[in-house]
Design goal:
Blueprint lengths: L3 H7 L9 E3 L7 H8 L4 E3 L14 E4 L7 H4 L6 E5 L11 H7 L4 E8 L10 E8 L6 H21 L3 H4 L17
GO molecular function, one term: methionyl-tRNA formyltransferase activity
Enzyme class: transferase
InterPro entries: Formyl_transf_N, Formyl_transf_N_sf, Met-tRNA-FMT_N
């Protein structure tokens, strides 16, 4: 999903600085492996908001799993956006892809939303993309399909900054469901 971001950073096309924050320890985290493979600076959560202030325009969140305090969100002039694997408000929570398949959904997608400090997956909707779920799709296959779309959608948002985050509509509460983490 994130492969295009370092390229854009290296070529200075859209992104001038890219660094990674991870809360997971060890080399088994795909995010940590990605940062190491791309030779990106890697920070561990929790981190000092002063490291952010005046250094970045926007924060991007992918597979993070922690509520982010206002102090950190507000350190980014344009706030933070999150890539979520469902058409929100359906399947808020940690396992949207698994729940979409388990509950027989015929479609899912990607939502790019603004990050809010007190709730997961409830921020304004910056962009959405819908895709169908075939009867043969596994969670892994659907994840890979959505990861590609998510990366493209994220770059689309970056190209459309700041308009896309400033004009993002509120997420409706109607139709909201929550997908608990699956172990």
């Amino acid at each position: 999903m994130l492969d295009d971001l370092p390229y854009n950073c290296r070529t200075n096309t859209l992104i001038s600085k890219l660094e990674v924050v991870s809360s997971k320890e060890g080399k088994h985290s795909p995010v940590i492996q990605f940062a190491q493979d791309e030779k990106l600076t890697l920070y561990r959560w929790p981190m000092d908001p002063d490291l952010i202030k005046d250094n970045y325009d926007i924060g991007m969140v992918v597979s993070f799993g922690h509520l982010i305090p206002s102090k950190i969100i507000n350190a980014f002039p344009l706030g933070m956006i999150n890539v979520h694997g469902s058409i929100l408000p359906r399947w808020r929570g940690a396992a949207p892809i698994v729940h979409a398949i388990l509950h027989g959904d015929h479609e899912t997608g990607i939502s790019i939303i603004r990050v809010r400090p007190k709730h997961f997956d409830r921020g304004e909707i910056v962009r959405q993309y819908r895709c169908s779920i075939s009867p043969d799709d596994t969670a892994g296959e659907l994840h890979n399909k959505l990861a590609l779309v998510g990366g493209q959608l994220l770059l689309e948002c970056v190209r459309d900054m700041p308009r896309c985050v400033l004009n993002a509509p509120a997420q409706p509460d109607e139709g909201a469901t929550y997908g608990m983490k699956v172990i």
